[in-house]
Amino acid sequence: MKDIDAFLKKLHYFDKKFKVFINQNYDQLMDEYSALCEIIDEYSSFIINHDNESQWTNLEQSIEIVSLVENLRNNSSVCVQIMEKYRALVLSNENEAFTDYFRNIENCIEKESVSFQMTSQSKVLMVGSGSFPITLLMIAERTGAEVFGIDLDEEAIRLGKHVVNKLGNHLSIQIDNKTVAELGVIKQISHIIFSSTVYSKYDILDQLYNVTNKDVRIAMRYGDGLKSLFNYPMQKVDETKWQLIEKIIHPQSVFDVVLYQKVQ
Question: Quick check: 48 and 253 in contact, CB under 8 A?
Fold first, then answer.
């Protein structure tokens, strides 16, 4: 019981911390950037700590707990978005700390790329590319593929383009403030990756069935169990449209990946 109480106390601690950062304005957050990175790193370590799995499993899923989990998932996602924006803004600062969170994400991308079988002939779309589009940069650099990113946050698009111009202006990367239906090259896209923090990713997946080619492959980042504190979980798909071809579980990563292809 004491372990469960300590676990809950830690969840409330994170919830309180995230709300403090979300309620601050940009000037305040610039001063608090390091502290924001630290709390995201701490949260990431908490999520992948296997000692916390038993507490999560034994946690009674009351209405209060479900609400707390939803708050943590949503608020941690907002804090990551804020952190990415500040990382983009301070890109020219050589003294910028490279956080454990970003190292973890890069490791996830490396593993994901191996399973997703992208080549220089691929056309890759990232849904929810964010302010610091590290996935786009890494895929374009390592494979030579033509890469596209979309995001509905106009500031994230502006900052994402700034990052690409700084770090990858020699690469084929295009970022737009568009939906999948508005993307002119959607029929030519061979691989689509979903950010784990895109709330409506399964609704978008359903839309993709009618606008993509028959051979398109989907990599859906997600988090179940303890990882659902940081990511939107996996959902059932319409089995007449999409076939699950592989689940890729990364015990030391903040998200896992499930691969889909169209039912022929």
Answer: yes
